């Protein structure tokens, strides 16, 4: 599903592997400087195994990996459009010149053929065809809750229309493009955040919106990457006439106001630009998921065995267990055996009957819930979550949270062709 670039290059014998990831990152930064998009560039810490970079955060990043005597990467480009696709190829050209790398495009690493032909018209057609596939998919269920080209977990609250990286678009926007070539091309250009190769005003406006809708944290940034995203959003907006875009201007004011109050945990407004203001799905251990406001902070604890999600004084922790032998009934933990069953989707859960004070602060209490779901083979998946806070209605809040938990069952890969 989608359009990808996957390629490798052999590392020449006269090129040292030592420091190659760092040199690659510096070459990529110099390339963004030459393209006028250095404010969108971020590099992870280079290691002996490679380096992760991004030069367009709405499309995620690109991991360049050293394997044996090769360097390789892959990236899905149909999230952002033909302009991004062409930019990746241009970046590879620059890396090839700077690092003496010969990318093996002859091995079929660019399914659009652009890396070999440099035919921009054909590239645009390939992305319009991909957009058409989305249109047909939406036409088959125009009233469905659709999210296109978004990362897992975003847009869990149904928007008024189809959720996209540039915000919701009406289903009619897609359906009208199916049988009209001119509308198809026009709407495809509007749909993708980065259509043209050059970075014109439309590029910066759409980049600003994509960053605000899908990437920034609507709270005080806590990591270098979160701070970079805040700077990138403001930098991109610096190329835009905000007087002509009240929605974008209001979103930036709110974002910067939230980011400036380091000692406050003030939730953002739920309306306006930003999927991160609404509910999103967070990944818990196992295949368990939970829908919470997108501005909650995620921390992985105990070597990945526990996920902590928190905002302000509220802390939620989850850990899971798989019972590898079939059972007829679920073996509830002792403190839940006398509690009543509750049903939420495919999950059954029970709540602890009382709250217990924490050991380090008697004003804070802990309540917990236990969940299970049963596979057709009789095996159980188990989840334990705890909620800690100083609020008086802790048990009521626990039930609210419990009803946002769900289990994502493994799915078989499709055996037939599909294009949406």
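Q: What amino acid sequence fits the structure above?
A:
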């Amino acid at each position: 599903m989608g359009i990808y670039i996957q390629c490798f290059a052999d590392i020449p014998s006269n090129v040292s592997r030592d420091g190659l990831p760092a040199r690659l990152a510096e070459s990529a930064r110099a390339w963004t400087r030459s393209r006028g998009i250095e404010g969108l560039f971020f590099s992870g810490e280079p290691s002996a195994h490679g380096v992760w970079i991004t030069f367009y955060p709405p499309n995620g990043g690109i991991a360049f990996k050293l394997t044996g005597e090769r360097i390789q990467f892959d990236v899905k480009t149909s999230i952002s459009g033909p302009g991004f696709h062409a930019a990746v190829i241009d970046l590879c050209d620059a890396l090839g010149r700077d690092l003496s790398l010969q990318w093996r495009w002859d091995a079929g690493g660019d399914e659009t053929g652009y890396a070999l032909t440099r035919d921009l018209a054909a590239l645009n057609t390939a992305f319009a065809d991909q957009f058409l596939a989305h249109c047909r998919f939406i036409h088959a269920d125009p009233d469905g809750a659709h999210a296109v080209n978004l990362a897992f977990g975003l847009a869990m609250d149904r928007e008024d229309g189809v959720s996209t990286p540039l915000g919701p678009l009406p289903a009619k926007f897609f359906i009208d493009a199916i049988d009209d070539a001119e509308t198809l091309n026009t709407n495809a250009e509007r749909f993708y955040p980065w259509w043209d190769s050059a970075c014109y005003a439309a590029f910066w406006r759409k980049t600003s919106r994509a960053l605000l809708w899908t990437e920034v944290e609507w709270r005080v940034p806590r990591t270098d990457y979160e701070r970079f995203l805040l700077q990138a959003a403001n930098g991109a907006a610096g190329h835009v006439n905000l007087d002509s875009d009240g929605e974008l201007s209001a979103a930036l004011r709110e974002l910067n106001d939230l980011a400036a109050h380091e000692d406050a945990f003030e939730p953002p407004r739920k309306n306006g630009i930003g999927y991160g203001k609404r509910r999103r799905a967070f990944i818990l251990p196992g295949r368990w998921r939970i829908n919470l406001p997108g501005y909650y902070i995620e921390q992985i604890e105990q070597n990945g065995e526990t996920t902590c999600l928190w905002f302000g004084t509220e802390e939620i922790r989850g850990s899971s267990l798989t019972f590898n032998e079939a059972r007829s009934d679920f073996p509830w933990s002792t403190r839940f055996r006398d509690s009543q069953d509750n049903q939420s989707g495919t999950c059954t859960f029970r709540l602890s009957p009382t709250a217990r004070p924490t050991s380090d602060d008697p004003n804070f209490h802990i309540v917990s819930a236990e969940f299970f779901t049963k596979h057709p083979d009789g095996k159980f998946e188990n989840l334990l979550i705890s909620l800690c806070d100083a609020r008086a209605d802790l048990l009521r809040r626990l039930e609210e949270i419990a009803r946002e938990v769900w289990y994502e069952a493994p799915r078989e890969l499709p055996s037939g062709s599909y294009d949406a």
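Q: And what stands out in the fold?
A: The two ends are 7 Å apart (CA to CA).
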